[in-house]
Write a structure and sequence with these properties.
The complex is a heterodimer of chains A (115) and B (112).
Chain A (H helix, E strand, L loop, with lengths): L3 E4 L2 E4 L5 E7 L6 E7 L6 E7 L5 E2 L8 E7 L2 E6 L8 E8 L7 E2 L3 E5 L1
Parallel strand pairs in A: 2-11
Antiparallel strand pairs in A: 1-3, 3-8, 4-5, 4-9, 5-6, 7-8, 9-10, 9-11
Chain B lengths: L4 E3 L2 E5 L4 E6 L8 E6 L6 E6 L5 E4 L2 E6 L4 E6 L8 E8 L6 E3 L3 E6 L1
Parallel strand pairs in B: 2-11
Antiparallel strand pairs in B: 1-3, 3-8, 4-5, 4-9, 6-7, 7-8, 9-10, 9-11
Classes of the chains: A mainly beta (115), B mainly beta (112).
């Protein structure tokens, strides 16, 4: 139980294009989903928290117009990196949590390379 | 800025060895401490959520202890196996119970 999928697992795109990453909870309803980013040799850094049906809350320093988050249903959240640039190249990973649970369940992550 | 520190950064042991590593966190306003195991190309897997000072939790050959007064948690692996090779992460909630701050992890490699 508690499986989270993420798609795509890796993506290469040209500078200036937008990339959408999907995060799905497969066997539970995720009231809250989280998006993290990890740069090489650094820890997972929380980018934003999204609750189903409401606007995402972004961490300090994360541009909301750059990283669009949609959490339209209890099983799906999407992260769109708009007008991607090489400095956006990173590992993006989502997690999901159901109401009343303490544990976040993670997807396998998406590696983004912007050329 | 909240610091969650893990040591050592990496560890290389032989099959059958027992090992342990440390997670240090701020001792004030403690809520919970999470441990995850992250194998390459897989999703991080939740191991433990520790909440009480003096708590000890066990899952097979892996166990964890918690000292909230001094701000540390130990993860122990008894009789390491190659399948234990992974990065072990700890995380500490900040702000709200759900917002996790992660350490950089301890990368464990177990060889035959």
């Amino acid at each position: 139980g508690a499986v989270v999928s993420q798609h795509p697992s890796w993506v290469i795109c040209k500078s200036g294009t937008s990339v959408k990453i999907e995060c799905r909870s497969l066997d539970f309803q995720a009231t809250t989903m989280f998006w993290y980013r990890q740069f090489p040799k650094q820890s997972l850094m929380l980018m934003a928290t999204s609750n189903e049906g409401s606007k995402a809350t972004y961490e300090q320093g994360v541009e909301k117009d750059k990283f669009l988050i949609n959490h339209a249903s209890l099983t799906l959240s999407t992260l769109t990196v708009t007008s991607a640039h090489p400095e956006d190249s990173s590992f993006y990973i989502c997690s999901a949590e159901s109401s009343g649970e303490e544990t976040q369940y993670f997807g396998p992550g998406t590696r983004l390379l912007v050329l | 800025i909240l610091n969650v520190e893990q040591s050592p950064q990496s560890l290389h042991v032989q099959e059958g060895d027992s090992t342990n590593f440390t997670c240090s966190f701020p001792s004030s306003n403690f809520y919970a401490l999470h441990w995850y195991r992250w194998e390459t190309a897989k999703s991080p897997e939740a191991l433990f959520v520790m909440t009480l000072n003096g708590d000890e939790k066990k899952k097979g050959r892996i166990s964890a202890t918690l000292n909230t007064k001094e701000g540390y948690s130990y993860l122990y692996i008894k009789g390491s196996q190659p399948e234990d090779s992974a990065t072990y992460l700890c995380a500490f909630p900040t702000g709200t119970a759900s917002k996790l701050t992660f350490g950089t992890g301890t990368r464990l490699q177990v060889t035959l």
